[in-house]
Prior knowledge:
mainly alpha
Amino acid sequence: MDTETFRLLFLVVLGLMLATQLWLASRQLHYVVAHRARVPGAFRGKVPLKAHRRAADYTAARTRFRRVDAVIGAILLLGWTVGGGLDLLDQLVRSAGFGPLATGTLFLVGTILLMGILELPGSIYETFVIEQRFGFNKTTPGLFVADLLRNALIALAFGVPLALTALWLMGRMGTYWWIYVWLLWMGFTLFMVWAYPTLIAPLFNRFRPLKAGPMRTRIQHLLKRTGFKSRGIFVVDSSRRTTHGNAYFTGFGRAKRIVFFDSLLATLRAGEVEAVLAHELGHFKRHHIAKRLAVLAVTSLAGLALLGWLLEQPWFYAALGMREPSTHAALMLFMLVTPVFTFFAQPLYARASRAHEFEADEFAAEQTSARSLVSALIKLYRDNASTLTPDPLHSAFYDSHPPAPLRVARLLRHA
Length: 415
């Protein structure tokens, strides 16, 4: 393949991706607004019309924002690649006269930090305008800045050694360097799964054990009969930042933790909390986390093998605006353009994720009460302003969770 052909292919696929994003966003807006005035039949008497309209308005506001964000993202991607932004930064870093490893690491880390800065206005708008308008945001400007600094320090603490090691392996391990980098990446991924609940999350939130009482006893009985062992049951002070409610378990092995948002416990009854937890345990018992890690392992290995070939192709660099080939340039270009070429595989991932959600619902219905889970979901849809009427095509393309009416109907059949 020559330079002009690959550049044209990249521009065409990027254009198709952006056009699809805008088209799906337009469908979502029209569909949600068109169904704003009436609560779907399965939710009448359970979700007030006022709450349904609020969810529609919230979804519409987020969709409009993401439509603008998609356009800005495409423009920035063009600026970084064919516009010469990465090449300019590369030449600037090279002029400092450091060695290859230091130059490559500084280029990668600097690029990622600059991208984060460019995305900052969108994050501020989403938090302090959209989330604030609909009553979800509890983050103060001071807390927002503190979170940014903590995230930056964590990214540097983990990202610099990771980039340095990856570039060293790429330069020293010969033709099959990508196998060694893959082993590094999977090891780092597993390390982060372990490290997040024990080392990272406590830097942002306070986690306290769930108090003794009927709810804790009920949860412990659920864990016992499902054979699930964890390090503890915790409540996180999520209400410092948002009123959205959720529950999850994190980590693996002995580091597994069950975590409830404090805003969730303030809303749900004990039986509903038990059903929500049973759903989360369903992901573990049906091996969804292991399956996702396996998919990540296979796709990342294939991707790195492809990068190993592209690394040797001069047209890959030239087509994307880089004058001087290098391992660090190839790595950054690959990270930027891969989402463009894999965008149309998104529905496959979304479909698999929705299937996992149905399986977790079925597990929860077997272990607890399907009607309790339905009741909990309706409260979460209402309190989180999740639309009950998404556009079917938009939902099929993007959504990791099934549409509310379909999910509730299947649970009621189990009941």
